[in-house]
Specification:
By secondary structure, the chain is an alpha+beta fold. It has one domain: Hotdog Thioesterase (Thiol Ester Dehydrase, Chain A, Roll). 26% of the residues are buried. Helices cover 19% and strands 34% of the residues.
Length: 145
């Protein structure tokens, strides 16, 4: 990663996915454990891709593998907070995509946490990189901020 992950605002994102915290997400310190945030990132991005018809997780010949990830925490979240995950795309390469996700609690305007991950799209069988297809590329371009 080059540089620091900066705190973002709700207006920095075009698409949002609703996520409900669960009682089991809280750790002994009374807030959502850091590992849960990565699950939220994965869920928000993949739900967006599946719902918009650009990723078939069961039958598709192409899958996305996470090769890099990071997160910066700004304020705690805890059950029963409601989270909205803002998703945007920072870069689309030949076979890779950098997603950036802002997590907003209870309609707050500033992100409680901001993270990113990079997917490399590969052939499901060979696990070799493949080019992002035109349909997916078009959708990803629409998520650029």
């Amino acid at each position: 990663m080059t540089g620091t992950i900066e705190r973002t605002k709700r207006s920095d994102y075009r698409r949002f996915q609703q996520i409900s915290t669960r009682w089991m997400d809280n750790d002994v310190y009374g807030h959502v454990n850091n590992v849960v945030y990565y699950s939220w990132f994965d869920t928000a991005v993949n739900r967006l891709l599946v719902v918009n018809g650009v990723l078939d997780i069961h039958e598709g010949t192409t899958i996305g593998l996470v090769v890099e990830t990071g997160c910066r925490y700004f304020s705690p979240t805890a059950f029963p907070d409601e989270i909205e995950a803002g998703v945007r795309v920072a870069h689309v390469g030949t076979s890779s995509v950098r997603y950036e996700i802002g997590l907003f609690r209870n309609n707050e305007q500033e992100a409680a946490a901001v993270g990113y991950f990079v997917h490399v799209y590969v052939d499901r069988e060979s696990k070799r990189p493949v080019s992002v297809d035109d349909k997916m590329r078009g959708f990803l371009e629409s998520l650029k901020s």
